[in-house]
Amino acid sequence: MLNLLQKKEQKKIYQEYRLRRLVVSLALVTFVGVFLLVLLLPSLILSLARKDEAVRDLSALQDKSAKDAKDLETSLSQTNQRLQALQKDKTTSAHDIFISIMNDTPPGVRLTGFTYQYPTETKAAQPQQLQITITGRSANRDALQTFARDLESADIFEDVTLPVSNFAKDKDIDFILNLLIKTNS
Question: Which of 44, 46, 148, 169 is 20 to 30 A removed from 98 (C-alpha atoms)?
Answer without folding.
Answer: 169
